[in-house]
Amino acid sequence: MIKRSLSRIVVIYSLSFVVAGLSGCSVLGKKSEAETAANTAYYVCSGCHGSDNVRVNFMTPTINGQKKGYIAATLRDYRDKKRIEPLMNGAVASLSDQEIENLAAYYAKAQRGD
Predict the structure, then answer these.
(1) Under the phi-then-psi rule, with left for phi > 0, alpha for psi from -120 to 50, and beta for the rest, what region is 53?
(2) Contact between residue 33 and residue 98 where contact means Cβ atoms under 8 Å apart
């Protein structure tokens, strides 16, 4: 139990650093909003939610093809800690409203792979 809690904490901190790094890259690299959303999806989200329409496990929801408004509202709730899930709270902690909108649009356009 302690080992599992410790590994979750390590993952949370790691994701926080990745998100912070990606936020900086989007400003310095002058990437398009779509490129930044794709990078965030790949480096932050796909670790749990899967990439290429392949879910990592049955406990993590598939977000490909979900409605844009639902994804954006959910991400804002996790960021603002209205919904508590330590991995998600850490992963989206530094995302701006615009980055959340871009990420939601990216996943809304992706095809579901259920």
Answers:
(1) left
(2) yes
Global pTM value: 0.67
For the chain, domains (ranges, CATH) are: 2-109 (1.10.760.10)
Q: Please enumerate in sequence order all residues whose Cβ is within 8 A of that of 57, keeping only pairs 6 or more positions apart, or say none.
A: none
Q: What DSSP state is assigned to residue 83?
A: S
- Residues near 37 by Cβ (< 8 Å), separated by ≥ 6? 99, 102, 103, 105, 106
pLDDT in tens, 47-103: 888 876 567 778 888 888 999 999 999 999 999 999 999 999 999 999 999 999 999
- Sort 67 into a burial class: Cβ within 10 Å, 0-12 / 13-18 / 19+: exposed
